[in-house]
Amino acid sequence: MKHRIWFKALALVAVLTIVATACADDGGGDGGPGAGEVDCATVEFGCVEVGADEPIKLGAAQVISGADASLGQDQVNALELAIDYLDESFDQTPGTLLDHPVELTVEDELCSAEGGQTAGTALAADTSIVAVVGTSCSSAALGVADTILGDKGITLISGSNTSPALTDPELHNPFYARTAHNDRIQGAIGAEFALGEDLGATTAATIADESPYTQGLVGAFEANFEAGGGTITGSEQVNSEDTDFKPVLRSLAEQDPEVLYFPIFVAACTLIIRQAQDIMPDAELIVADGCLSSDTLKNAGPAADGVWASSPDLSAFQSDEFYSGEFIPAYQEAFGSEPLAVFHAHSFDAANVVFAAIEEVAIDNGDGSLSIPRQALRDAIFATEGFDGVTGTITCLDTGDCATDVTIGLFLAPGWPVEGGTDDPAVYTDTKSLDEVL
Amino acid sequence: MAPSLRGGTLAGTEAPHVAVARLGRFERLPWRRIILVVLGIVVGGVVVLGTLRTLGLDRVEGGYSGGAWRDFIVQGAAQGAIFAMIALGYSLVYGILRMINFAHGEVFMAGAFGSFFFADAYAKSGFLNRSPLLALAIVTLVAVAVSVGTAVLLERLAYRPLRNAPRLVPLITAIGATLFLQNAFRGFFGPQPYGYPKPTVLAGNITVLGVQIQRTQLLVLVVAVICMIVLQWFVATTRTGRSMRAVAQDREIASLMGINVDRVIVVTFAIGGVLAGIAGVLFSLSFEQVQFTMGFRPGIAAFTAAVLGGIGSIGGAALGGFVIGLLQAVGPPLILTGFGIPSVFSLKDAFVFLVLVLVLVFRPGGLLGTGEAEKV
């Protein structure tokens, strides 16, 4: 019998070797050739050819219809401003990049995995697209748009995806990056706040729904809350289209948690705020930026008073001279309204990171046409370091996170920073980097 | 107990045994029955084991107090009452036309949404709190009018032209009507949720027979039970009710007996609309929020309830609604907690549909159905 064991061991080694070789091949693209020595005919993923009179095409996968349309439209507006600003001034005439105009191709990602699939496929099929800014919602990117575009060597860079899963080393697509904050930090600061002096809680319960956004936040909150010495007394998952959360709340109330953390979107979040009034009157309620909306305050009425909401504290760059003195007036002049949501600045930065990388890697063929190697473009975006953006200094990590230090504030309703709120300053703010949180 | 809209079963329709010569003893064993019995024992065992283990848990270990069970039951019954009222609309129409009116969930949504604008205006003017009874009566009338209007228009425009088409055609039309209605409301009023006002008399709790229950939950239960009793009476004793039962048994013969079949069908849709409108107001008062998508999930739950109870049967739809509501609230914590499953409520819907499948395996016609399989 002994030789059989040897046989198995040998087979195992052989299999491992094959796997290791395969993996090594995958990662081999990272150290791609520099711009000077690229041969478009042989390089992996090839080059985007831009003819002498043709525009450079930038894709956008954003939600522009349905309940979350304002989130995506706000970013599409920001991308148009970024194209306008290519000539270093907001004058409502588009600037040029390497003497080529830049054209925006927008696809609707519907804030869902299905929409991400459709939008990703449509953009990936267009071989003239250089890079894509998007998606608006993590669910449209995770395992859908990031994979579809990544398989074609098209870099996807998002200004509003915050789910930790997207840049988790095990799930990260090498062609995915983001200038939005990673919710590991928002969840961690939520937990820090719950444990800290203001609430002084030691027990908490959580509710997530089916979206990667809420699951990421809840995961980060739970890990950091427990690491800080707290106890999670219960965690439930609901469906965002449900309306009756009373049994769920009643079941969590059995353990008398001091804090209830439910970073869910507006409709379900409002229902939980109302229903928790009767069932968990003593618990402190904490929600996240997905619920931080004027609709929540309006529909929950007095029940919303005293609810905490965590959100990236944008006041740091909102007082910035460029942002308040140039960007916002240009936005108002071009689109006739205040910014619709919070992520326009992040998408503006994402577009500029892409433009800077194109300038770095594009090969001038001498006849006015350009060749942009996809792999080198991706590498240049990921090599961004100390880029001076509107939202702060941008440095991209290997895992795709380009916003490494994030300031999160906790706001107490009705003092939320939204229309209809009293706009009080954050009760608690903290800045953390990704290395400091779990 | 409940007069069934469906006719009685025909006796002796069992297929004659096909005689096959020289079957082995093994093949003659009643395999279908054996599998059913084994499945029944397994399911029963899991339920009993889970329940015992859950009840044996201490509160510190994740168990529940008596108060929690009482609240689960009240919450489940209140939710179930609304499902039951919507389910009656599915069941009535099925009983008469043998068709699933999938758009019924949107009829419910239309009523709730329509009444929102009146309720909102009354709340802003203070009328809602000054004379809540009158205000709610008007709001309910509006909801009923909108729901009945929607249901009758659906019948006239979408279903009547297809009355004699194959069964699949009106079913697909109904799904189309669902999408049309949802998107029409989204187009008119936007995708955002609206806060539905509730008069202050309905806020807070009330003690009934020693049990604390929310005033809205009590209102939901009382109104739902009254509606069902009235419906039962209507179908059992009035002339129109008798015509409905006649059309349900045989449309052609009923027509030959001088019954105006078209009128009966319109009345059936209208009754479904009345119930959906009232359910819409009760739902909105309970959850204080309306949105264009609000009809979809309650519609699915109510359809499930109608099938579970025995589609075509009035008592069955009512029973099915309550069973689904209770299963969603009580089932997951009672049976799943004992097995140490985390986030038991995330399995709420899976649990309900598992029960539906099991009920249909043992009683193909549903709980109060005729006992024979019904293809829906």
What does the model show?
The complex is a heterodimer of chains A (438) and B (376). With 438 residues, chain A is α/β, with parallel strands linked by helices. The termini of chain A are far apart. Chain A has helices at 2-27, 69-84, 113-125, 138-151, 183-195, 212-227, 246-253, 266-279, 294-300, 315-318, 321-335, 344-361, 374-382; strands spanning 47-50, 56-62, 96-97, 100-108, 129-134, 155-158, 176-178, 203-208, 231-237, 259-261, 284-287, 308-312, 363-364, 370-373, 387-389, 392-394, 405-412, 428-433. Chain A has 13 helices and 18 strands. Chain B has one domain: ABC transporter involved in vitamin B12 uptake, BtuC. Helix content of chain B is 68%, strand content 3%. Chain B has 14 helices and four strands. The longest helix of chain B has 32 residues, at 66-97. Chain B starts with 24 loop residues before the first helix and ends in a 14-residue tail after the last helix. Residues 6-16 of chain B have low confidence and may be disordered. Chains A and B meet through strand 9, helix 7, helix 8 and helix 9 of A and helix 3, strand 1, helix 11, helix 12 and helix 13 of B.
Keywords summarizing the entry:
heterodimer, A: 438 residues, Rossmann fold, 2 domains, seven-stranded mixed sheet, B: 376 residues, mainly alpha, ABC transporter involved in vitamin B12 uptake, BtuC, two-stranded antiparallel ribbon, 4 strands
Write the layout of secondary structure elements.
The complex is a heterodimer of chains A (438) and B (376).
Chain A: H1 2-27, E1 47-50, E2 56-62, H2 69-84, E3 96-97, E4 100-108, H3 113-125, E5 129-134, H4 138-151, E6 155-158, E7 176-178, H5 183-195, E8 203-208, H6 212-227, E9 231-237, H7 246-253, E10 259-261, H8 266-279, E11 284-287, H9 294-300, E12 308-312, H10 315-318, H11 321-335, H12 344-361, E13 363-364, E14 370-373, H13 374-382, E15 387-389, E16 392-394, E17 405-412, E18 428-433
Parallel strand pairs in A: 2-4, 2-5, 5-6, 6-7, 8-9, 8-10, 10-11, 11-12
Antiparallel strand pairs in A: 1-14, 3-4, 12-17, 13-14, 15-16, 17-18
Helix pairs in contact in A: 2-12, 3-4, 5-6, 7-8, 8-9, 12-13
Chain B: H1 25-28, H2 31-56, H3 66-97, H4 104-125, H5 127-130, H6 132-159, H7 168-189, E1 194-195, E2 205-208, E3 211-214, H8 215-237, H9 239-249, H10 251-256, H11 261-287, E4 289-290, H12 296-309, H13 314-336, H14 348-362
Antiparallel strand pairs in B: 1-4, 2-3
